[in-house]
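[job 4471] stage=fold_predict status=RUNNING
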Amino acid sequence: MLLRDYRFPPRYGPEWGSGGIFGLKYHNGTLYFTLAFEAEAHFIDVKSGEEKTYDFTLLGGAPTSGGDTYNAVETVDEFIYFGGWVHAPAVYREDRRILFHNKYSHVHVYDTEEGTVKLLWKDSIHHETDWAGEVSDILYDPYNDRLLLAREDGHANLGVYALDRRTGKAEPLIHEPSLKGTIVHDAAFFGVGSNFTAGLREIRALDLITGKWEAFKPGDSVDGRPYIRPEYGPLASAYNRAFAFVRGGIIAGNPLMGEDFRFFRLFEFYTFYAPFRVNAINVGGGILTAYNAHHDVLYRPDGSLTWATTNTITGPSVLLYIAPPMVKIVGAFGARITGIEKVDGKLLIATNTTPNTGSTEATPFDTGSRDVVVLDEKIIQERPPAVSFSLPLALPGMARKLGGGTFGGIPLDGYREPRMVLYLSNDNRLTVYEYDLSLPAGEAVAETFDVKAGKNILELDSFSGIVSFELEKEDMKGKARIELR
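[job 4471] inference complete, writing structure tokens
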């Protein structure tokens, strides 16, 4: 497959920092994606190479900006339904602010047979600083032949909405903010909670047949230790379970089949390293998704903990293959991965060098360099790449005050010589928790080691599955480096 453009440098598109390549979807011979913040929807005939672009001016006047930053896309029959949000027209002020009077949430439909775009639904509150909930996910409900919209990012009209795909009429089903969902058996599972406060607080399940809702808590951690702020990205379905990918771990299970949700600690560094602004797809019976190093950030230093946690880079973004009980790293990338899709035996990985920024840190152009990397799908069967993570121990030390402190959750599958290097300011004791992504969830096995002030090397090749760590005493000057080879 030949794309006309694989790389997209910074261009005009007023918003906060950088958007990315979102909504990658291959359907009925057409590859779709939206380039944000330029607000360009691209439709490529993969056989002929013919490409069409759409600038979202069915919503309002040019110049437009935005598009989608959560991968809101679904396919039904010959149609590609794509959603998100758009400024039409965009209004940028020189005091680094965007005016939101013209910000619309939207769902469009592209007919792959006719090659036409239509506006199906839009919503706006026409406010200077606030906006209607963006469309962050679209699910097809095959029993009721409708679209289910998740809306979490915004100030009004949040929740889960049902959209008639013929009339364009939308009605709310619940009003609690919801970013993502997935279909499991005959139910639709949606995350509920705000990612800019405490994250996922519960998972709601909608019975597609009866229309009844049930609510479930995220559950306890398999390593027996508490977890905090599970800001969440995609939900995915496999093995008749729902998988919610969150900051610091994975929440998996299905209470509708008698299995409580449990938390599996994964990549917990007490930073904003998270599976945020990326999608998850099913490949080979498993799930392929990513955890991102730098997706949202407070740009201007203000001495706050938020600035420190969003700007501390602990490791590369990783592409993950989930096939329980295995969690396997299959790729290492830069600041963030924004989209994943499978086309003709290849994996398309959309990437970006730059994160989103804060609300008073707007620019008149997208500041990121975005590109599409093409990989062979056989990477899910190959040995994982060498990866390292470096963590200031002050972060888990500070997390203790919030009820956390256990860090890591490092998947060892495929690595022959993993190790941890600890640089400590005082003697301490380190507990290693060993577990895997077993379903139903098992419990971790713990082993404790005496560690000394100075440099300590702990070989991890005697462990398997996933390992997390906890120091008995805080070490605000220490550092941990985890090397996977």
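[job 4471] summary: The domain at 7-381 is CATH 2.130.10.10 (Methylamine Dehydrogenase; Chain H).
[job 4471] exit 0
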